[in-house]
Specification:
CATH topology of chain A: TIM Barrel
Mean pLDDT of chain A: 93
Shape of chain A: globular
Oligomer: homodimer
Low-confidence stretches of chain A: 1-19
Helix content of chain A: 40-55%
Distance between the termini of chain A: 40 Å
Number of domains of chain A: 1
Strand content of chain A: 5-15%
Largest sheet of chain A: 7 strands, parallel
Chain lengths: ~375, ~375
Amino acid sequence: MRQSSPMTTTMTSTFTSTSTLSAFPALTNDTFLRACRRQATGYTPLWLMRQAGRYLPEYKATRAKAGSFMGLATNVDYATEVTLQPLERFPLDAAILFSDILTVPDAMGLGLTFAEGEGPRFATVVRDEAAVNALAVPDMDKLRYVFDAVTSIRKALNGRVPLIGFSGSPWTLACYMVEGRGSQDYRHIKSLMYARPDLMQRILQVNADSVAQYLNAQIDAGAQAVMIFDSWGGVLADGMFQQFSLAYTKQVLAQLKRTGVDGQDVPRIVFTKGGGIWLPDMKDMDCEVLGLDWTANLTQARALVGESKALQGNIDPNVLFAPPEAVAAQARAVLDSFGKPHTDRSTTGATHIFNLGHGISQFTPPEHVSALVETVHSYSRQLRQAV
Amino acid sequence: MRQSSPMTTTMTSTFTSTSTLSAFPALTNDTFLRACRRQATGYTPLWLMRQAGRYLPEYKATRAKAGSFMGLATNVDYATEVTLQPLERFPLDAAILFSDILTVPDAMGLGLTFAEGEGPRFATVVRDEAAVNALAVPDMDKLRYVFDAVTSIRKALNGRVPLIGFSGSPWTLACYMVEGRGSQDYRHIKSLMYARPDLMQRILQVNADSVAQYLNAQIDAGAQAVMIFDSWGGVLADGMFQQFSLAYTKQVLAQLKRTGVDGQDVPRIVFTKGGGIWLPDMKDMDCEVLGLDWTANLTQARALVGESKALQGNIDPNVLFAPPEAVAAQARAVLDSFGKPHTDRSTTGATHIFNLGHGISQFTPPEHVSALVETVHSYSRQLRQAV
């Protein structure tokens, strides 16, 4: 999860109208979107969770100019600048909006702050009936700085690669809203869930409706695909995951717009960190792409999911600390694990989008990322030639 | 994981000879051991990971007397006292040695220390070839305080319930040895593993041999079952788990004594936190019991494992923060999920040992534990009557 703070914003840019947005230039590289749609591609597209981030010196420079992460995330120009930075270094196949998953609960009025090196904190925690009853879907106007950033980034991309919008899942947002910060044991939210499931469900219902509106506004602003990060779904017990996370992710999916401002369909990606064990529960979800972390075996996942969804993942970001030749070997292993993707351009089939199983570490040497990208592109072309 | 420190110890008790140990009294309650052996029992036995711990005021009182966790863990009398404390409160079906998983690397000379509220730290970290080459199986005499505690506890139990010995897995010990402390991202050990698998394998080989000797000495001292905690196996990528954790756990299992000092077989339990996704890889392991965390579905696990192993687990310890009636409902759900256990006393079959999916939290109200224990015992009797 990326750190940010929406807070009060002094953005002056105006929300661009749909008619203007439909004038976005055609995509030069649609490999990622084709793979999302289970269409054959010449190679396996890749992007990296948290690809715009602290491992890049140019990101640190922009952040320094912005003064803080909060200043960075709420400034459309800076958000646009850092979103594009990794594309200048690496031939990645998608860009992802630079923002934070906690923008939505902040817009609900919970008071997000960051202390340097401590991660996010909310001034208000949601742990009792009064706090739960006070929750409501936020006015999307408070999140206008996010939608403005989407439009700005899409324009700046100029058709180079598609732009992915995103949100935390209802459950993952609730973890922060109830715990008030990151947690090791999720004691507060699980206490609430087991003791007062009715209150927990009310929080999740507000979150599901909020996330749906938030992602729809990103789609209207120009997002070409959207991803729901269920970063903490994996901490739930079997049975509770299905009831308190998956059910609400499904509610979001059901409410999402299927067509973007340019008339193209907008693929929906769902990623539950630590959720590989529940793949049988997720395989029939109404989305186009399932994200998997590195604990999942892609051969088995592909066999289970069949051709109904594209799979995204799943190298351990810690691989990137190894020397380039070891990075390349592990990248090939992930591609081999998925196996030869669908290559028939006349129909749809099983496709793979290469990604990390979690956000890239700030300690990653950028030249190791180059080795990863180069290997994924070249080896996945070879793999398609294999008989 | 429990905190402790062996360090230098001034233990004066003498390691009891095998002939003396064989005079241990017969078990009054062998329900746990019968379930480990896949024999029918009148109810589902239960014990709780970290059942002797800070949620008990009497534990805190003993720890205060001992002056520190280190003083507690290395003093045979105190270790015996706290091991028995939860049995005085709750009719649990097994006791587990009070100790820490880091005793073994400490005996290797890595210099374990504890700063209050900070968790364990090693003075020496094992990250380069020289440090790896310097590793060796420790002299088991340095761990005599542990074996003395096993004998003392077994005597004090006086046949009431069986005593479980334990160790961290080779991989889990290595995590601490390489990271030097608890970690969020396992960056150092994964860097070593991906960059220098040869060094990683050497560490794991030393650990496997050390753990085997350590558990065998616990068996010789009177342990009636042994458990291997692979607390951090779940952080590995698919493929790496099998190669860097499971393979070495198997090496430990292959070296373990199968018979205790009383001539009884000694069941071996393996628990990989976060390892449910790899159950197909673990189901044929040479052990008697597989532990599962709360993400696993017991119905599915039972179907997969069949009658080849007992299953131990798997309620979320956070359930214990809910009111007693909610605790009871969740306990019944776990028992229902496993289903009716094998009841034919003439043969072996599918058995269940109830446990948490992780250690009990220090914030747990003890009366909620009472509700759990009572429900598991009573409801599991009912379940056996069901047609």
